[in-house]
Each structure stands twice: as structure tokens, then as C-alpha cells.
Amino acid sequence: MEKLSMFCCVLFALFLRCGVSLNSYSGAHKPPMFGDYEAQRHWMEITYNLPINEWYNQTKDNDLMYWGLDYPPLTAYHSKLCGIVANLMNPDWVALNTSRGYESYNHKLFMRATVLVADIFIYIVAVIAFVGITLKKYSSYEQVLLTTMLLSYPGLILIDHGHFQYNCISLGFTLFSTVFMMRQYHCISSMFFVLALNYKQMELYHSFPFFFYLLSVSWKQKTWLQSVVKLGGIGSTVIATFIISWLPFLKSLESAQLVVQRLFPFNRGLFEDKVANVWCAVSVVVKIKNLISQPQMVQLCLLSTVVACLPSCFDLLRNGTRKKFLYSMINCSLAFFLFSYQVHEKSILIPATSVCLILWMNPMAASWFLVISTFSMYPLLVRDGQSTSYFSLVILYVMLASFLCKSQSYSRWTKLVVSLSLTGCAALHLAFSLVDAPPSLPDLYPLLFSVYSCAHFVLFWLYFLYIQWNCPKHDSADLLSNKISSAKKIR
């Protein structure tokens, strides 16, 4: 019965993904640049047709100004694999230069299928592993409900299967890494995290928690020699995984530098569109880019991000427990999202996926955050024609969250705050739909969504930081002692 229930959860998750994939996608029928859908298709074209030394290099057949490859090597290898399959099905889909902006019904089916396959074999398997291994002492009902919520998070479904990206791969690798970390297989955990980092460099958002937790674990060994051996084993795993991932680009220093320059383009803007982070919110009042130079802005972002991560990292280094590690993943990734340079709206998926992992410990705060994170991307999603899918998935998720939260009692104050927050979201949606922005303020609604969401994220960051610092200072023998039904009342 339990296996059948899990199978039904996966079928339900696939149904949601397929339903969303029937809609439009980023940049559909919008030349000359189109959108992320075309970017992914173009990378298949480039990696399939060109030698590996030209993938990240400006050449006559690889115009970096037209969706140049700017993700790490594992993304490039994945694109090449998809390109090989695409060429077998229809060579026109990846024909060099002539396939730009290619759009057809069959091609859309193929592209959607590549995301679905990646989701099934990486992210969905990782979720099942997390629930089955980390939460194995929960009741079948609780496991099924948590699995359903993890697989039904609207933000990831809408971006990967609607907007069109492959976030499920890097986030799935990170989730696998977390599963092995919870089971204290530190070298395997490190390998999976390096794979995630080498698929999308934005997984740097999670790098501090992994580094400081593993450092803390190494220091806690019984002898100095054991500490050195432990740290050496982890370090060797990390280095070996990096070398294998980057091997084709390590033939020369210049080749490696070209890749690094593409991964960290500091010549771009401070943020993309109206992202819900501190710099975008502050820019409403103060135009920072007019006050300081671009290099100074990069330095300010770096300093702000490190300072924002320090409290969580210091606590994790001093008292490295698995629960603190889970909260540190949230706190550091949120700090990166709020304060770092060149942040995209979709980057909120990184802290959001970490928040998914504490649904079993803190259902109200976690589900509330996940709804707000999806809300923050609405201006992007509405441009992609995802409004119907957005509202359907968010309403479904709120209903699932209500079932999860029934097992806890909450104060009137907590219920009032959450209700007011969601009422504000509903009010903004109504205004967006019914009242046109004045011609002098064309970006009014994206900015309102951004600032409203940013205020929530800052408060969530402070709240989760407080929770991390107040977690027990020692790992209990049973990590799962915090059953949903026995969790403390939130006041």
C-alpha cells in the first residue's frame, strides 16, 4: 500500500508537470532573441555541431551575444546529449546557424520531454530518497503528504515545465547531496554537491553551509590524525570530481579562463528585471548604480553577501548539527539571493528548494515561504502565458499546506500575520488584473511584486536565522525526533 501511495504521488506530480507543459514558454514567437527555450535549444545546436574548444569561445559559428553558453561544463555535456537525440529525430532542430528560433509542435514536445525525463530521473528520485531515507520513521500518511508537497512546489514546476529550464537537475543533485549528508556519507554528499555546482554555478548559494558543516564534522573527530584524514578524503573527492567535470577544458589555462569568464560575467547589470532582492527594492528610492561604479558595486555585493552569511556559518562551524545544516542552507542561499550580484527572479528556487526540506519540521513557515517565492515570480510567469497554471498550482498548494498544518496548533497572531500576508498577495493580483499601470510608471506592478516579496524574504531570513541559532547544539541519535504531530506551538 505504501509503495502504491508513493507511485500515485509520482503520477500526480507528472500530471501537474505535463499540464503546465501544454502552455506557452519563455520567448515564444518573439524574435529576434526569443527566450530561455531558445537558449536551451541553441546550446544543443552549438555543443552538437562545434568542437568542445569553441563552446565558450567567440567564433564565426558561435556568436556569444546570441545566447552564448554561460553555464558550467555539465550543462554543456547535457546539451550535447540532447543535441545528439534531437539530430536523430530531426536534424533541422539543431542545424548550425539555420535553426535559430526554430519552433514547431514536434520540437516543443521534444524539448518538454527532455525536461520531464531529467525531472523524473534526478529530482523526483531525489525527493523519494529524501522522504524514504530521512523521514522513514514517519507514518505512511505523513510521508505521502510530504512527498506530494515536495513534488508539487509550484515555483519549480512553473519555471522548468512552463517558462523552460532544467533547474531540476542542479537542485536534484543538491537534494541527493543533502540526503547523503543526513546519512553522514560525507564524501558521496560532496561529490553530488560538486556535480550540482558544475551544472549551475548558482549552487554557490549553498556552498558556505556545505563547507562549514564538513569543516565542523572534520574538527569533531576523536584525534587530530582522524580530522586530517576526514578532511583529506572530502577534499580529494571534491578535487577529483571537479577535475573529471572540467577535464576537456583543462588542456590549457586559456581554455579554462574562457569558461570562468562566461560563468561570472561581472559586466552585466546588478539584477535582472524586477527581482525581489534588496538591491532592486532599494533602487526604487536610491539609484545605486548612479552613485558608485560597477566594480565598486560588485565589491559591495560581495561584502554584503559574506556579512549576511556569517551568522549562519559561524553557528554551523561552532555547533555543526544536521538540523542546523538544513537551516543554514536556507539562510545562506537567501543571503545570496538578497545581496549578491546579478541575481535573477528564478534564483529564488534555490532557497525555496532548501525550504522544502524543512516542511516536516516547520510546516507553516515553510509552506508560507514557498507560496511567497512563487508569488515573487508572477510578473515573469504572466509574460510567458502561465497565469492559469500559476493560480491553479498555488491554490492546490495552499490546500495541501492546510492539511499539513492541521497537525500543529498556531497562535492567533501567527494565523493573522499569514492571513494578512496572503491577502496582500491577492490584492496585488487583483490590482494587476483590473487596474492598468499609469503610462508614466510602466513597471509599477513588477516593482510592487518585487518590493512586497523582498520584505517577506528579509523577514523570513531573520526568522530562519533565529531558528537555526536556537536548534539543539548536539545531533540527536534520531534526527527525526521532531514529528509533525509533536512540533511545538508557534507563537
TrEMBL record:
Any Pfam family the entry gives: Alg6_Alg8
Query: Pathway, per UniProt?
Result: Protein modification; protein glycosylation
Give the location in the cell: Endoplasmic reticulum membrane
Question: Signal peptide: which range, if any?
Answer: 1-21
Query: What are the GO MF terms of this UniProt record?
Result: dolichyl pyrophosphate Man9GlcNAc2 alpha-1,3-glucosyltransferase activity
Q: What class of enzyme is it?
A: transferase
GO (cellular component) term, any one: endoplasmic reticulum membrane
Annotated EC: 2.4.1.-
- Spell out where the chain crosses the membrane: 109-133, 140-158, 231-250, 325-343, 355-381, 387-404, 416-435, 447-466
UniProt keyword list: Endoplasmic reticulum, Glycosyltransferase, Membrane, Signal, Transferase, Transmembrane, Transmembrane helix
The protein's superkingdom reads Eukaryota
Q: How does it sit in the membrane?
A: Multi-pass membrane protein
Which family does the record claim for this protein? Belongs to the ALG6/ALG8 glucosyltransferase family.
Q: Which PANTHER family match?
A: DOLICHYL GLYCOSYLTRANSFERASE (PTHR12413), DOLICHYL PYROPHOSPHATE MAN9GLCNAC2 ALPHA-1,3-GLUCOSYLTRANSFERASE (PTHR12413:SF1)
| Name of the featured protein | Alpha-1,3-glucosyltransferase
